[in-house]
Design brief:
The chain is an alpha/beta fold. It is built from ten helices and eleven strands. It has one domain: P-loop containing nucleotide triphosphate hydrolases (Rossmann fold, 3-Layer(aba) Sandwich). The strands form two sheets. It has a six-stranded mixed β-sheet with strand order 7-8-9-4-10-11, sandwiched between helices. Strands 1, 2, 3, 5 and 6 form a five-stranded antiparallel β-sheet that branches. Helix 3 packs across helix 4, helix 3 packs parallel to helix 5 and helix 5 packs parallel to helix 6. The radius of gyration is 20 Å and the shape is globular.
Length: about 280
């Protein structure tokens, strides 16, 4: 779905750059990109969507090079972008009108637009809100409407740049449930950029960025089991993982790749049975 080849990027003022980033994301994968502020993850998202153009190297979205201006429209139809603040993407005062905005700009027939709006709103669990004013929605609901607006254009991939950063815990969970549902039930490729480690544990793969470089890549268990390596670059690990490693250091026999609460509970129960 997405492939970068020796990707380099530098802003005009020389403020920040990406160095020799090589990434491959397969169709249907759920990939999380993590890194502290200034690590390059948001810049990478904008490059994926053709908002920025590589200084050197290439980005291919289903073999379409983002350097080719003639392909940008098709690239953005294939890989939709969701930003941190949903208010930046909501353009209409009524929910169904906002979701219809994208397909209308693709010159799709009205009857098809109606079908897409209905289908997209149902996919994100917001169909009952279709006639509501967008201003009356919570942050989590607005973000789901922003996702529905992208879905209505039928992309193969959604790229999300910290979409839950401005949401409360309930809104965050709503958005994450929506993303996993789209990935699992509709095989949609999801590239999720976040600084919440608990949002990364259910990914197929995690990419870790630091100072403009890809420094680690692997499954959630592979990445978070390297507790001290992750913390050394200013990132955290899931609280349950950190607790497990503290207990291991105290001599308690636990697995080093615990990343979920239910895994910790099972390990402790097994430990109690052995005692």
């Amino acid at each position: 779905m997405i492939k970068t080849k020796n990707l380099n990027f530098e802003y005009e003022d020389g403020d920040f750059k990406l160095e020799d980033v090589n990434i491959q994301i397969k169709d249907g994968e759920f990939v999380v990109i993590i890194g502290h502020n200034g690590s390059g993850k948001s810049t990478l998202a904008k490059l994926f969507n053709g908002i920025l153009t590589p200084t050197q190297g290439d980005i291919l979205i289903h073999d379409m090079n983002t350097k080719d201006p003639a392909l940008i429209w098709d690239i953005r139809k294939s890989a939709g972008m969701i930003f941190q603040n949903p208010d930046n993407q909501i353009v209409a005062t009524i929910v169904e009108d906002d979701v219809a905005f994208g397909p209308e700009n693709l010159a799709i027939e009205r009857s098809e637009i109606i079908k897409r709006v209905e289908s997209s709103l149902k996919s994100v669990g917001m169909f009952e809100y279709k006639l509501k004013p967008t201003t009356s929605l919570s942050g989590g609901q607005k973000q789901r409407i922003a996702i529905a607006g992208i879905l209505a254009m039928k992309p193969e991939c959604i790229i999300l740049d910290e979409p839950t950063a401005m949401l409360d815990p309930v809104g965050r969970q709503d958005v994450m449930n929506t993303l996993h549902q789209l990935n699992q039930e509709e095989n949609m490729t999801v590239v999720h950029i976040t600084h919440f480690m608990d949002e990364a544990v259910h990914a197929d793969r995690i990419i870790v960025m630091d100072q403009g470089k890809k420094i680690m890549e692997g499954t959630p268990k592979e990445i978070f089991s390297k507790v001290w390596d992750v913390r050394k670059i200013g990132l955290d690990v899931p609280q349950v993982t950190y607790l497990a490693h503290l207990l291991i250091e105290e001599g308690i026999n636990l697995s080093e790749d615990i990343i979920k609460i239910d895994e910790m509970v099972e390990e402790l129960c097994q430990l109690k049975l052995k005692i």
